[in-house]
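Quick log. Single chain, no ligands specified.
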Amino acid sequence: MFMDGGRQLLNQETARPKSVAATLGRFWAYFRHYWVALLSVLALTLGAVWAGIQIPLVTEQAVNCYLVPNPQACTYVQVPPEWMTAAGATGDALGARLRGVGELVLIALGLLAMNGTLIGSAFYAMRYAGQNVIRRLQREMLHQIHRLSLGYYSKNEAGDVMSRVTNDVDTLQQTFGFALMQVVTAVLNVGWIIIVMLQRQWEFALLSLSIVPVMLAVTWYFSGQARKAFRRARREIGSVNANLQESIAGAREVQAFNREEEAIAQFMTSNDANRAANVRAALYTSALSPVLEALSYVNLGIVVVVGGLGLLGMIPFIDKSTISIGLVIAFILYTQRATQPIQQIALLWANVQSGIAGGERIFSFLDERPDVVELPNAKPLPPIEGRVTFEHVSAEYVKGEKVLDDVNFEVQPGQMIALVGPTGAGKTTVINLIPRFYDVSSGAVKIDGVDVRTVTTDSLRSQIGIVLQDTYLFSTTVMENIRYGRPDATDEEVIAAAKLVAAHDFIERLPDGYQTVLGERGGGLSQGQRQLIAIARVALMNPRLLILDEATSSVDTRTERIIQAAFDKLLRGRTSFVIAHRLSTIRSADQIYMLKAGRIVEHGTHEELMARRGEYYALYMSQFKAQEDAPQPVPVAGD
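-> predicted structure:
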């Protein structure tokens, strides 16, 4: 079920070097459009961090000014001398000290409220900017899906593309909505706390923060390993989705060939790889938390020991007069507030790393360049007559492996051209070159003398109608499925197109007629009915050039006659290219081109080619003659 080519591409993606700086730079290109919101986030976050840092200072003053009065260490109020003596225990002095403590408690509560309010507002502003960036990315990805050439989808699985649009974008939403904001807040907290501590007492601060470099080094190592694991996990979930999409799309084939167990086994293989990648990522993120927790306790012990020895004057290079009980308590609070953000950074950075990995996959998809690109000076193709010319056309899907080799022919307006030949002869490649789904590797395809590479693809494809063997109908009404050929068509024009191709009667018999909502890919309709709706869709376009690729190969003979009658009306007066394996579709062709190994080996009318007894004759005798010679029912009396 899982395509080897897709797996090889995933492995190639694994091998590509990644740049976090480049990815973040790409994100900035989107975020800079919302610079007002980002400035608001910065201002609100700085205000919140400032409020949080003031709380230990207020606590220090409460201790030094009122609880354990120290005139040298009290900077907020003047400590009365009697507070340092037994007189400080009298009622008036005690009441004054309690009132002072109460005031500082109210200040601390106000700072806490300010911190919470500002952080909440910053989160809202960040989420506003993040959601707008996500919306732009999703719009660009959808545009890219429709911009990429068909060659991309022949090499990459739809499930992996879907994973980039859904899972990777969802990871970015989590990152922009919560994790990134938390990391930024934590970084500002740590940096500001270190500065404040160094300003307060730099010798004590250096000792108190001595374990922080170790915590940062541990965080750097574990988060780096987590990023690699998350990047792998993002790729593996793409594999899981690709496998799941194949299983759903091919459910009928799986059941028809009794391959359920194998399909489940293949899904489990990719699912196990996804589980292993996520477990590895979880290993690093879960190991980081207890390591940092242990280091934070070591850091707290250092602060207590150094602070206690400093108060006792037992540390030679620290002046005892610069240390107070309030300062020690403040440093305890500061180190806790510093180590907790480091732990938050470590844990949330894993989410940020996952977001970066998802961003890398999104940008790698957006960076894909379509094989078919409009020229900067491409002009609209004027209304065509329908003359198609192939001039020394060669084409290849893989470099150096030609699927068409020096093909030359010219089709006059209104002619019906049949393309026949064995599988792999290049028939489908010929018709893919006309609407420019692929480009020639040499030579030129021209319509009315104009090289299709020099005109806009919209103006080219809007004049070409295509009916394929595997008709695709959308999960909407019959009316809208037919109108897909020309969105501005009225209901009356849609019904007229359906009548033209003999689809009106069966549509009227549907539960809600033209307003019947179809299931996925036209579920609930027969193959013939789906084909008739597809033909009506093309008839509504009224194209000058028509391409039919095995359009009747999947229906029975009776349904084929109905469809063929619709084609007869549709083909009248239009240039048409027909690939078919049934004689009834090609015998009336103006010219039949016999292809073999990418070259035209014969061409002419059916009668001319049969008389020539060459390649076409041999193919006809082997594949088509049996249909003509099939025994017919013998009439019985009374019939």
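The CA atoms of residues 222 and 288 lie 6 Å apart.
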